[in-house]
Design a protein that fits this description.
383 residues, alpha/beta, Aspartate Aminotransferase, domain 1, Aspartate Aminotransferase, domain 2, 2 domains, seven-stranded mixed β-sheet, four-stranded antiparallel β-sheet, 15% strand, globular, binds pyridoxal-5'-phosphate
């Protein structure tokens, strides 16, 4: 499959530096490069921030409400179900501590990023233990997970949508259906898929979905969101409480009324003064993704990934870590080789920006990468 989308115009407009830079950037799974339109907003807000009296209060509130609305649009949610967060992990901690889980067992896959592990291991004092479902051929064993959900002791499941090291895409509909059938909470770490793979949260049995925006969403560090399923928004209590959770926070004449009156929507989980500036920047990045279209980006990175997968499968000394099946991968493509260190060193010397995770080379192309770059990359790997 080739991609009908041509990134040339987007590169010229948003990533002009790529034309002159000898580096090829394949590392959105670590940190996404901010587009020029977002950098412009950052500059504008920095200038305003230097003279805060020129920055209207309404502009700050508007940046936050646009961020909620655009993040919601990215994942098929309503803005009222979105709370702005500084990263993924805070949203997962909200899930760990706010969901009314009885003592029992939580399940996740061995090999997940620690954000799916530590917040839940921390629940031991509540009688909740986290069980890791062992890997099968190095990948998450979804059959074993779904089978385990039937057990009486299981109270919740947490998985990442796309795994950070293997790039494995979990079948959220299948896992969620098993959770729903057994009254088990379902929590998802969405950061490695959000922005580059379509998702309709209203069509999925997911209770809480958290994502930082600093990777595939091409946004500043310190921006992200948590989605809380509508029926839960008012049914769970915030874990941390501050002035920003309260209705009075938008009316500075009423701050000392001390009305303990939480917002009715997911803003009740936003505790403190927001990073308005960073969310204004994130809004420009999210706009770009929505304008290009998440579906279009998804097809593009699939086509680029297909080339890398075909190359890996053609080499007897290379073993693909990421599933070959396009339905089971997103932007992360990982592979090992007999001499992985030499290969990584060759990439490094040729200024191919990548990472090594769990002993595998990880490449993560995005909407700005071209087929020609992939061919150059493969030629470097074949040298
Ligand atoms: C699956 C996954 N979750 C979470 C994170 C980072 O968490 P946070 O956004 O809280 O820093 C990463 C970063 O590599 C990740 O790959």
């Amino acid at each position: 499959m080739t991609s009908p989308y041509n990134p040339a115009a987007l590169r010229a407009r948003e990533y002009a530096w790529m034309a002159d830079d000898p580096a090829m950037f394949f590392n959105a799974a670590s940190v996404g490069p901010m587009p020029a339109s977002a950098v412009r907003v950052a500059d504008q807000w920095s200038a305003l921030r230097a003279q805060p009296h020129r920055l209207p209060f309404d502009a700050m509130l508007e940046a936050a409400s646009t961020a909620r609305a655009q993040f919601a649009a990215l994942v098929g949610a309503d803005p009222e179900e979105i709370a702005l967060m500084p990263n993924t992990t805070y949203g997962l901690n909200l899930a760990a501590r706010a969901l009314p889980m009885r003592p029992g067992t939580m399940l996740t896959f061995d090999g997940e990023f620690p954000s799916c592990v530590y917040p839940f291991q921390a629940l031991a004092s509540r009688g909740i233990t986290l069980e890791l479902i062992p890997r099968r051929h190095g990948l998450p064993d979804e059959d074993a997970l779904v089978a385990a959900i039937h057990r009486e002791d299981v109270v919740a499941v947490v998985v990442s949508w796309v795994q950070f090291a293997t790039g494995y895409v979990a079948d959220l509909a299948r896992i969620g259906a098993a959770c729903r059938a057994h009254n088990v909470f379902f929590i998802v770490d969405g950061i490695q898929g959000c922005g580059v793979r379509p998702i309709d949260l209203h069509a999925l049995p997911i209770d809480i979905f958290a994502s930082g925006a600093q990777k595939w969403q091409l946004s500043p560090w310190g921006t992200g969101f948590v989605y809380v399923r509508r029926a839960l928004v008012q049914a769970i209590d915030p874990i941390d409480v501050g002035w920003a959770c309260m209705k009075t926070s938008t009316d500075y004449t009423r701050l000392t009324d001390y009305d303990f009156d939480l917002f009715d929507d997911a803003r009740r989980f936003e505790v403190v003064t927001l990073a308005y500036q960073d969310f204004a920047v994130a809004n420009a990045s999210t706009r770009l993704l929505l304008d290009v279209g998440v579906e279009v980006v998804a097809h593009h990175i699939e086509a680029l990934g297909n080339r890398i997968v075909a190359w890996a499968q053609s080499r007897s000394d290379v073993r693909l870590v990421t599933p070959g099946d396009p339905a089971r991968r997103a932007g992360v493509i990982a592979f090992t080789a007999d001499n992985i260190q030499a290969m990584a060193a060759r990439l490094h010397a040729a200024q191919v920006v990548h990472t090594v995770r769990e002993g595998a080379i990880r490449l993560s192309p995005h909407c700005y990468n071209t087929t020609e770059e992939i061919e150059r990359l493969l030629a470097i790997l074949d040298r």
